[in-house]
Design a protein that fits this description.
ten-stranded mixed beta sheet, globular
């Protein structure tokens, strides 16, 4: 009997080992969520936004599993096939966004931030934020943390100060952290201080090589100063849109220069200062894969790099997978996409859900971030020369808050897919692009978009059970069980 028991125990261990080997392991989440059993009594909650915006993230009648498939199109969800873990879904909290939020009456401000960053039934659970290091073009004015009069320098960084960020951005971040202490924060600089640049301007120009060590210390000093405020910067990109010289502020940094800066300045400063903040490359469009690939092909620079960040104002979202496949030990992140004002709800919803909410994770991205969280009705504040047509996820005018299309684009994922969730396998069906996740609590989440011109009936298959579903043209739904 003992030998027989040992035999069965050995067989079970072998089966378990085989099933585990089919999934990609992640060092970030070694304890996998349970592979829950599904049965006919289980219901699927459904959250819908329709194409014309008359229904916006509203819960619908639940679906129920059946043993028989009753449709021609099947989306099969397989929670045993696991890919990257997700860091989160969210927005850029621009300086202007923080100013508008901070000007709300305290009760309304707290309620809004709980709605955005909380985890209760009325919240959308944003788990990742991008902020600017110094001013972005959606601040009311241009500044760095060490501005000097023309012709003067401060190589000792003795004048360094978080300055303008202490007025609105940092107080808002502190409130957000009280609501969600685990939120991840990405910092991106739009420019180095002008005195470090070859043109002495906040617009365009490049970082002078002589100031590489100083700028590396500047970025380290920023991370340390934020930590003193109780704000952990999870990751930084080295330069927002390094191939765009036209914004205010902006700075050009070619791939070879970025590699040199990482290899000979930033990497060693972070190492010497014991800074664990992740370093992300590029932070620009999907049409220039040569940029991140050139740096990742440089071992001396790549050793300090966690991964690459992308926008989609040019190129194809599939580029993220190409970079991942070339360097599978490095992560990819999607960090910015705007909605141009005044916005068109149906087309914006379809394009952003298909390319970002579905497309980016299916191409290995750990984050999906829309551009500015909030602007006023005139698409302000912005710097002179900054974006004049950036529609916020929120329009805040006085005490009035309007939720725009980007709010619902992100909420369809952020409300249901928290930090630490896995992307899991689901097959693509023509006209029904989709993506699936497994949450740390063991919930399965499927997001489906109907890109066809007619209503589409389809089935959701999990294990050997089926749930019938249907979406009208242009509708998006999140299914949770």
């Amino acid at each position: 009997m003992k030998k027989l028991c040992k035999y069965f125990l050995l067989i079970n261990c072998m089966i378990l080992a085989m099933s585990c080997s089919s999934a990609q392991k992640s060092p970030e989440m070694p304890n996998r969520p349970p592979n829950t059993v599904v049965n006919l009594k289980d219901s699927i909650s459904v959250w819908l936004t329709n194409a014309n915006g008359s229904v916006r993230l509203q819960q619908q009648t639940p679906l129920y599993f059946d043993t028989v498939n009753k449709t021609n199109f099947i989306i099969v969800v397989d929670s045993l096939q696991r890919y990257q873990t997700m860091d989160g879904f969210g927005y850029t909290l621009t300086g202007g966004s923080a100013t508008l939020i901070n000007q709300l009456p305290n009760t309304q401000k707290t309620a809004l931030l709980k709605e955005l960053f909380g985890h209760d039934a009325n919240s959308i659970g944003i788990s990742y934020l991008r902020i600017s290091i110094g001013a972005s073009d959606l601040n009311s004015s241009v500044f760095s943390y060490d501005d000097m009069p023309a012709g003067q320098t401060d190589t000792a960084l003795s004048k360094f100060s978080l300055g303008a960020d202490t007025v609105d951005l940092i107080p808002v971040l502190k409130t957000i952290l009280q609501i969600n202490p685990s939120i991840k924060i990405l910092g991106s600089p739009w420019s180095a201080p002008a005195w470090m640049k070859d043109n002495g301007s906040t617009i365009g120009g490049s970082l002078l090589p002589a100031y590489y060590p100083v700028y590396a210390k500047y970025l380290a000093k920023y991370i340390q100063a934020m930590q003193q405020q109780g704000i952990t910067v999870h990751a930084i990109t080295i330069q927002n849109e390094p191939l765009n010289p036209n914004n205010n502020p902006s700075m050009v940094m070619q791939a070879a220069d970025q590699a040199n800066f990482i290899q000979n300045a930033l990497g060693t400063v972070f190492k010497n200062e014991n800074i664990t903040t992740k370093i992300l490359l590029y932070d620009h469009n999907c049409d220039r894969l040569d940029y991140p690939i050139a740096i990742l092909n440089n071992p001396a620079a790549a050793q300090y790099v966690d991964g690459s960040a992308f926008h989609l104002y040019a190129g194809n979202i599939n580029a993220l997978a190409q970079v991942h496949d070339a360097f599978p030990d490095k992560n990819v992140y999607f960090t910015e996409q705007w909605v141009g004002a005044p916005g068109d709800f149906p087309s914006n919803l379809t394009w952003h859900v298909e390319n970002l909410i579905i497309g980016a994770p299916r191409n290995w991205s750990k984050t999906v971030l829309e551009w500015n969280l909030a602007a006023d009705a005139q698409y302000e504040p912005h710097t002179p020369g900054g974006c004049t047509q950036c529609l916020g996820a929120l329009t805040i005018q006085g005490n009035t808050v309007i939720r725009n299309v980007a709010y619902y684009i992100i909420a369809h994922a952020s409300k249901f897919v928290p930090y630490g969730s896995y992307r899991i396998a689901s097959n693509m069906v023509n006209g029904l692009p989709n993506v699936a996740f497994l949450t740390p609590a063991g919930k399965k989440v499927l997001i489906v978009l109907n890109t066809t011109a007619t209503t589409q009936a389809f089935g959701i298959q999990f294990k050997n059970l089926f749930a019938p579903a249907a979406l009208a043209s242009g509708d998006v739904a999140t299914y949770v069980w």
